[in-house]
From TrEMBL:
GO terms for cellular component: cytosol; protein-DNA complex. The modification 4-aspartylphosphate is found at residue 59. GO terms for biological process: regulation of DNA-templated transcription. GO terms for molecular function: hydrolase activity; phosphorelay response regulator activity; transcription cis-regulatory region binding. Residues 10-126 form the Response regulatory domain. This is Putative cyclic di-GMP phosphodiesterase. The keyword Manganese does not apply. It comes from the Bacteria. It is an enzyme of class 3 (hydrolase). Its EC number is 3.1.4.-. The keyword DNA-binding applies. Keywords: DNA-binding, Hydrolase, Phosphoprotein, Transcription, Transcription regulation, Two-component regulatory system.
Amino acid sequence: MNTSRGKKDVVLIVDDSPDTLSMLNDTLDQAGITVLVALEGAQALTIAANITPDVILMDALMPNMDGFEACRRLKENRDLAHIPVIFMTGLSDTESIVKGFAAGGVDYITKPVKGDELIARMRAHLNNARLTLSARVALDSAGQFLFSAAADGSLLWATPQAYHLLEDAGLDSAWLSENLPAQLRQLLAPHFNKEKGLLIKAADKPLEIRYISQTGNDEYLLQLIDLERPSDVDRLRSALPITERESEVLLWIAHGKTNREIGTILTMSPRTANKHLEQIFKKLNVENRTAAAVIALKHLQN
């Protein structure tokens, strides 16, 4: 499970059983993995905040702070929320399994733990977590006002630019945790027209949230719009020799939409969308959708 550069993966084991800790330490050490140990939830949070592990193996039932509460608190910390948590439990009833997933766990494994099975599951979740983290780093560097939320409206992560825009609008962390979820649930509801934006109430400046896509079983990618700034369509039209309608088509091309999807969004036929796209290609002197999207994204990011 080591990286190509020779850097060892770091796993934090959270368990109050000496026998379990000893067995897991030996298993992971033989696999070339660096092991950190915590005996209960609060200690785990302290360790994770100082030495960020790549994955956490969390016992469900422990004294003081149990694994479910520790996982919930970990996921509330935006610097640590990306760490995959695998629950270890002797409980196999549905209620405990659901409770683990609801707390933010990505998987569970029953005791006694089988070494080969544990390594295989850890490898899969580590790869997924690294892909997700790489995508978020790319979004951060691109300067996008993007964030994601769960179906219940809870904020999962956001780019620094999105956090700054929320702060500029006078929306602090307390408002984000207490008021934002109820508004996001409106946008994420099945009956809501997701091609429309949702105005944020109680902001010091007009902000709008727009739905981008579903990126996981319980994760949705959203965009924050500052309505005091020129719209993306206006920015493209002012920067490029294209009409307003062509700007609308180009914007959705940059969002990865097909001609059929663009036709639905803009209330036109896919054939008409393709006609606009042909004109965009000519005016921008490009040959395909990817090249046109790159030009659009460059101007939008600027």
